[in-house]
Structures are given as C-alpha cells and as structure tokens.
UniProtKB/TrEMBL annotation:
Annotated Nudix hydrolase domain residues: 40-171
Hydrolase recorded as keyword: yes
Taxonomic lineage: Bacteria, Bacillati, Bacillota, Bacilli, Bacillales
GO CC annotation: cytosol
Protein name (record): NUDIX hydrolase
Length: 183
C-alpha cells in the first residue's frame, strides 16, 4: 500500500462557529511539494433508524437552508461536547419523534464528506419505540414534521428527491440489505 499521507506544516483557524470550525492547513504532499487544504471541523453526529411495530420507518421533514428546500430524513443530530453517541441518539430520537427506546443497536459509523470535512455520523437502529408521555422540546431553531413510511415508500421518496441526503440513503440501503419487509 502506498503512503499518500500529507504532513501538516501549519494550521490557521479561519472560523469558529456554533456547528463547525474552518481551518486552512499548509501541507507537504507525498511528492515533496506543498499545498493548502481547507478543512471543516465538525464534532460529529448521530442518526437513528426508528422502526415502528407495523414495520414503518419514522422520518422527519425539515427545511435545510444550505439547499433552500425541505428534505425528509431519518432523525439525527450533532454530538454535544463530552456526550457519548448513544446518548445523543436517544436525545435526538426523543426530541424529533416523541418516542424513546430501551434498546439502540449500533449499525456503523461513516464520514459524510471526507474531501473537505471530518464529520463522522454514528448510525443506530431501534425497533422498540416507546411513546413519550410528555414530548420533549425541539431546539428553539428547529422545526420538523414526523412522517411514517414503508421502505418501498421511502425508496420512492429517494427517486423524487424528497429524500436526498447521504445518511438517509445509507440507512435505506442498510435496511434493504438486511431484508426489511417491503410492506
């Protein structure tokens, strides 16, 4: 295996925001030349595949400002400092869907955009949804609508680009490969 490692010579922080940080690194390339790399630093996130007792998947529809449109997605959220991914998954499930669970199964972790960002998403599955007696509040700047779809309906949403994000497409592929019933 070839070594394609780029060694950092210097890092310059450009922006430190609520969700992301931006830095520019000067690097030495494998051929000895130098270059610059712009990197979005992200604390990581979780996503949850919530399956109801009648074999439907819970999604949330929300407006995504960078895209200027609504998307239908699996529930997800950013890791808070010091928070374990499983705790974040449970918190986001409760806030966004009004359900909790007594069992989250870890599926996998994956990078969202490794060409310019270090964001990693930890994907969980739950098939034991328990309605909350008292709904949790969403973040003050978060507005979502809960949607229940079969796997077949969700795949149709992919074709019409109502589902158009990588984490949700990844989750649907996982379910298809696991043989989820198409009801």
């Amino acid at each position: 295996m070839k070594n394609f490692e780029e060694k950092t010579i210097q890092s310059t922080k450009i922006f430190d925001g609520k969700v992301v940080k931006l830095q520019v690194d000067e690097v030495t390339l494998p051929n000895g030349h130098t270059s610059k790399r712009e990197t979005v630093k992200h604390p990581g996130a979780v996503a949850i595949i919530p399956i109801t007792k009648d074999n439907k998947i819970l999604f949330v529809e929300q407006y995504r400002k960078p895209l200027e449109k609504n998307l239908v997605e699996i529930p997800a959220g950013k890791l808070e400092e010091g928070e374990k991914p499983e705790a974040t998954a449970l918190r986001e499930l409760e806030e966004e869907t009004g359900y909790t669970t007594d069992h989250l199964s870890f599926v996998t972790s994956f990078y969202t955009s490794p060409g310019f960002a270090d964001e990693i998403i930890h994907l969980y599955l739950t098939e034991n949804l328990i309605p909350l007696e008292v709904k949790k509040d969403l973040d003050e700047d978060e507005f979502v609508e809960l949607i229940e779809l079969t796997l077949e309906e969700a795949e149709q949403y992919v074709q019409t680009e109502r589902i158009h994000d990588a984490k949700t497409a990844y989750a649907l592929l996982y379910l298809r490969l696991q043989g989820m019933k198409r009801t």
